[in-house]
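pinging the channel bc i need a second pair of eyes. not urgent but kinda urgent?? the chain im working w is below, pasted from the shared doc
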Amino acid sequence: MKVRQMKKRERWSVDTIDLTTKPQEEKSQKKLISWFSENKKRILIVVGIVYLLILLFGIFTTRFYTDENGKRRAYQLSFSDLRTQDDYNALTDKLSDIRSLLTDITIIDIHVANGDYGNYEAATYYTEILNDRLDVLIPKISAMNLQDEQKTIQEEMESILSYDLALYLQNMASGLKSGSNETVGTALTYRDKAFATYELIENDLKAVSDRLKMNDKDYYNWVLKDAVTAKDKTAVLAEEGE
């Protein structure tokens, strides 16, 4: 009787019973393998889409240019370059507005020089540009959120509008109304300053364009005289027409 109890105890001894459970890792691995098997097609589609997006990103951020030796080279844009390009696009858009402004001002200048407008009529045109165009464009340029590297160009644009052209238009309108040659002469000095500032803006933007390897040489072939003639064929100085 005791022997049977001993065997029973030995049989059911805690030391002889395997109380360990199967590792949870094995179950998790089986579930993971099963999930991959069930979703194999979906996974391949997602991987393919991600690969395609990466490929497209590489294509759209790679720019080809011709170096000084005439060789075609590739330039990979960084994320910083992409931000700079956004600034560049915003600034060239505003430069186009400034070019349009210079064109319209120059058309008035030519007609005034040719005697096509009376003093009061011309003064009205200058004042309209000042109030309707200049005062609208200045806040738009000031509101641009640019990186520090492009802040200088933004300030130059503010300067040509708020200082150079604003004073030119004000003095021209005042000088024509009062018949003061001195005031008109002062106005012309600000006109010269405006064109000097414009050159700075265009050169600084061109430097950004070169750094980003932009293919926009045509944009910098803009000529004021051609723009004036294209907009108003009658805007030709009498001396040139003779």
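so Strands lie at 62-66, 72-76. and The CA atoms of residues 202 and 221 lie 11 Å apart. — does that match what u expected or am i reading it wrong
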